[in-house]
Amino acid sequence: MSNTEIVNETADIDDIELHEVYVYIADDNMSASVRLGKCDEGYTYDEVMNKLSLNGIKTGIDEEKIRWMISQKIYDQPVEIAVGKPVNTGKDGYYEFFFDTDAINNNRPTVREDGSIDYFNQKRFEKVNEGDLLARYHEPTKGEFGFDICGKLLVPKPGKPKPRLHGKGFKTSEDGKETYAAISGKIEYCNYDLSVVNVYEVNGNLDMSMGNIDFNGDVNITGSVRSGVTVHAMGSIYVGGFVEGATLIAGKDIVLKDGVNTKNSGKIEAGGNISGRFFENTEVIAKGDLQCNYILNCRVLTYGRVFVEGPIGSIIGGDVTGVMGISTTSCGHESNVKTLLRVGSTKEIRKEYAELIMELKEVDGQIETFEMANKKFEMIKQNMPEKYDSKMALRVTQSKIVKMAQKAKLEEKSKALYNLIRDSERAVVKVKNHIYPGSRVYMDDKTYMPSSVFSHIIVKKTPSTIILSDYDE
Q: Rounded to an integer, what distance in angstroms lies between the CA atom of residue 221 and that of residue 152?
């Protein structure tokens, strides 16, 4: 608070009588107080108002409080008599969703109190019907103007609009504020990308009598998948029961409420994550993570991490690769069964990255050739228009556009692989309980083979060797 009237601080205020109006203005000009000096003759309303005017106070004045101070002879006590109106910043626009966005974006199964994974009650996806209201957009507000006690208008900062929803399988109202499902299916949402995709439903078990499935969308099987069946989905695959000697291939995720035992005659492959209660005698490939309660005699390759959790939580036998790391309750068995764990980028990944770089160079060369051809066509068009072949020039331009699109996809894929190879250098193996002799951990060109039972450890790679550290570090 700044005092616009200077008081003689060398005198005791109780010993003097000053007929004076003291005005105190806040530094932000949003409030002001008045102190009336002690005197016998009192003050008039106009006297106080004139003093406020001289100090530039124009708005937010509480006239009733000033009259009260004068009538009650409130002396030598500052009283707030003017208050500005704070500016109210506008609120950003937002979407009100009528589906569970958290469940859609986080479809991992829940962990029970005993540490096991609850796959049975996992919410696999959210289904909507044609015409269902999916979202309502609330426009940003402009905010409310304010003012200070000196009469200055305070302009609010308006709220920011949200990006419009984009995707497929929905329609919007005429005013663009409400979004409805255009078809019945499964809803997908992430970062304003909204889609309703087709779901192929199989009520009950899927067996050879029904044949194989090849579907451009998601596949939901409420029962089990019997031996000899192949299911291929461009989206995700959901299975409510057990998977026998079948092959499941999904462009996105594979979610199993029960487990898998293909007896080495099937395969589970996903472009995203895979989760299930258990995996036995099967091949598992995931571009994302694998999460389960135990793995027995499987060949596993994940570009992400392998999580084997719960009271059993064991990897026994087989060959399990988690490029970004492996976390398990136990590894191996008391019988010293051979169990292989691998972390870090594989030879196949490095080879794939090298092949992508070579392909990029080849596409760059083709693009350069088309650019040179375009320049020649431009020269011909300018200098010898009678020999200019417009159709051929158009074909060259179109071919260049195709190659540019191909290059963009290759660059995106090569960047993802480069980051994967780089980040996988920090991959570790975490064993909460026991790792038994017979287990082997491979980290690039280095190998760790426990000579006895070790517990509660993390296996890490250094530039020169492999070291063990405590699990809780």
A: 67
- Round to whole Å and give the CA distance between 288 and 304: 5
What CA–CA distance (Å, rounded) separates 61 from 34?
11
State the sign of the Cα–Cα–Cα–Cα dihedral 88, 93, 97, 102: negative
Helix (H, G, I), strand (E, B) or coil at 240: coil
Place 473 in a pLDDT band, splitting at 50, 70 and 90.
low
Residue that has been written with the tokens 């107080």 in this structure: 33
Sign of CA dihedral 400, 402, 405, 407: negative
Q: Which two tokens stand for residue 392?
A: 């051929």
The CA-based dihedral angle spanning residues 186, 192, 193, 196, taken in that order and rounded to the nearest 10 degrees: 20
Tokens at 253, concatenated: 């995720």
CB 298 within 8 A of CB 280: yes
- Are β-strands 254-256 and 267-270 bridged in parallel, bridged antiparallel, or unpaired? unpaired
Question: Which phi-psi region, left, alpha or beta, contains residue 217 (left: φ > 0; alpha: ψ -120 to 50)?
Answer: left
Length of the chain: 473
Answer for the pair 193, 169: CB distance below 8 angstroms, yes or no: no
Count each helix (H run) and each strand (E run) in the chain, helices first. 5, 42
- Integer angstrom CA distances of residue 132 from 169, 187, 198: 12, 11, 15
Return the sign of the alpha-carbon dihedral for residues 50, 53, 55, 58. positive
| Residue 371, number of CB atoms within 10 A of its CB | 12
Q: Are 451 and 437 in contact (CB under 8 A)?
A: yes
The dihedrals phi and psi of 374, each to the nearest 5 degrees, come to -60, -40
Paired strand residues for 23: 34
Q: What average pLDDT is seen over the chain? A: 89
Are 437 and 336 contacting, i.e. CB atoms less than 8 angstroms apart?
A: yes
d(CA 299, CA 380): 61
Give the Cα separation of 330 and 316 in Å (integer).
8
Taking CA atoms, 370 is separated from 344, 388, 397, in Å, by 40, 16, 7
- What type of residue sits at position 79? V
Q: Pick from 99, 80, 81, 76: which is nearest to 17 by CA?
A: 76
Contact 176, 137 (CB under 8 A): yes
Q: How many CB atoms lie within 10 A of CB 14?
A: 8
Tens digit of each residue's pLDDT (9 = 90 or more) over 49-69: 999 999 999 999 999 999 999
pLDDT digits (tens, 9 = 90+) for 346-355: 888 999 999 9
Q: Are 74 and 66 in contact (CB under 8 A)?
A: no
DSSP state of 169: S
